[in-house]
Design brief:
86 residues, little secondary structure, globular, disordered N terminus
Length: 86
C-alpha cells in the first residue's frame, strides 16, 4: 500500500472558506503548491503558516493576491524567492 505522503492534500474545500482569517498548515507534509488556486478566495486571510510543507514558488502567485495577509511562515519549504507580491 502506498504511503499517504505520496498523495497531495485535497484543497478544493478551501474555496468555501471566504471569511477564514488564520490557516496553520505547518508540518503538513502533503501540502504542496498544486492546490493553492483554491486558497485565492480566502480574501480575509491574515495569517498563513506553511512551514515544513512541500510548498514552492508556484504557491506565491496565489499568496501574493491575499491582500490582508500580515503573517506568512515559509520556513523549511521549497520556496526559493521572496518575490511573492507579483
Amino acid at each position: 500500500m502506498p504511503s499517504a505522503d505520496k498523495f497531495p492534500m485535497r484543497t478544493e474545500h478551501l474555496n468555501e472558506l471566504k471569511q477564514l482569517k488564520e490557516l496553520n498548515l505547518g508540518g503538513c507534509k502533503r501540502v504542496s503548491s498544486a492546490g493553492f488556486k483554491h486558497l485565492s478566495s480566502a480574501v480575509e486571510l491574515e495569517l498563513l503558516n506553511l512551514s515544513v510543507t512541500q510548498v514552492s514558488d508556484e504557491a506565491l502567485k496565489v499568496i501574493g493576491k491575499l491582500t490582508k495577509l500580515r503573517h506568512l511562515d515559509l520556513d523549511n519549504t521549497n520556496v526559493t524567492t521572496m518575490d511573492w507580491r507579483n
